[in-house]
Design brief:
four-stranded antiparallel beta sheet; 2 domains; 12 strands; 12 helices; 35% helix
Length: 335
């Protein structure tokens, strides 16, 4: 591991901002969100987590797939992803990218739009200093110190940051500014170990799961429990749109400015229209069906298909749900 002192970090950040697009958490009206910054002082790294995950930089809320001019027969496709550094991502959100990789880069038909952005953006995660009440990232080994989808992991300690390059891309970023870094000393590693132990203790009393039991959720669940829980759901879809792992989408075709346009945008399996077919047939017509499907998909079907859970324990759906639906109830009951 390497050590980067506070002054070195400021210099590194200014170097990055002057040479490449840097996306970092910025405070806006008392909340934090990821934005492109123009100077290092805009970044607010002393934060718990953002209301919205940074997935929109990899899966935009709406994007053009192609435009076709019927007169010239010209086909216009969007350009590739722009080089950028995504700084200060929490380990849970970085781990969500690893799940996206399993799903969206799986051969033989990887998503070319996601692939382009994933290869263009260097992800620098920032270890948590204190878990929030709704956090349960440890359940899925998605934090709180290290994630599984970042290129570099930063851990704040006294006087600066411990730096761990997790990929070739991360190593390249470190090598460009090698003079700013030094080998971590025993005192740095000791503090890192103490921080790891403290966070583990603080989160250990939360939830323990058995992967083997959880992937059998669909076969063992109590329908009465889900019927009762679903009655509280108001189908606002907030849980899906704030989730760093949800990747459901819809496409739309329309005619605009003498061209046929196809767009792709976020959608959710919690929507009443998501599974309705052109014939009118809907395999998940009731709220209970959709409610149950969401949990079974995240905790049972995705693990069976891609060997990754569809949840990283960020807690956004827990803290933001207007009626208090809590995925941890399912984990405690069937995990």
């Amino acid at each position: 591991m390497l050590f980067l002192d506070e002054d070195g970090f400021k210099r590194l950040l200014e170097q990055l901002v002057s040479n490449i697009r840097v996306i970092a958490p910025v405070e806006t009206d008392g909340y934090f969100e990821f934005k492109t910054i123009k100077h290092g002082g805009e970044a607010s790294l002393d934060y718990s987590n953002t209301r919205l995950p940074p997935k929109r930089f990899f899966l935009p809320q709406r994007e053009v797939v192609f435009k076709h001019d019927p007169k010239t027969r010209a086909l216009h496709e969007p350009m590739g992803g722009l080089e950028a550094v995504l700084l200060g991502v929490r380990p849970c959100d970085a781990s969500a990218l690893n799940i996206f990789d399993s799903v969206l880069l799986k051969p033989p038909n990887p998503d070319p739009f996601y692939e382009s952005r994933r290869r263009s953006i260097t992800v620098v995660s920032l270890s948590c200093a204190k878990p929030r009440e709704e956090c349960f990232c440890n359940v899925f080994e998605a934090g709180p110190i290290r994630g599984s989808g970042e290129d570099i992991t930063l851990t704040r300690i006294t006087g600066g940051f411990l730096v761990e390059a997790r990929s070739r891309r991360g190593q390249s970023l470190v090598e460009v500014s090698a003079s700013l870094f030094e080998e971590a000393g025993p005192e740095h590693l000791e503090e890192y170990g103490e921080l790891t132990c403290r966070l583990t203790r603080e989160m250990n009393s939360r939830i323990e799961i058995s992967r083997e039991r959880l992937v059998r959720l669909e076969a063992t669940l109590d329908e009465g429990f889900f019927q009762q829980a679903a009655q509280r759901c108001v189908e606002c879809s907030l849980c899906s749109f704030t989730c760093p792992v949800c990747y459901c989408f819809d496409t739309e075709d329309y005619f605009e400015k003498n061209a046929y346009v196809r767009t792709k945008g976020w959608d959710t399996c919690a929507s009443t229209l998501f599974t309705r077919m052109a014939s009118g047939l809907d395999p998940r017509v009731s709220r209970v069906d959709r409610f149950c499907h969401r949990f079974c998909h995240k905790l049972s079907r995705i693990p069976m298909a891609f060997n990754s859970f569809g949840c990283v324990g960020c807690g956004r759906c827990v803290s933001l749900c207007p009626v208090g639906v809590d995925i941890r109830e399912v984990l405690k009951r069937w995990g």
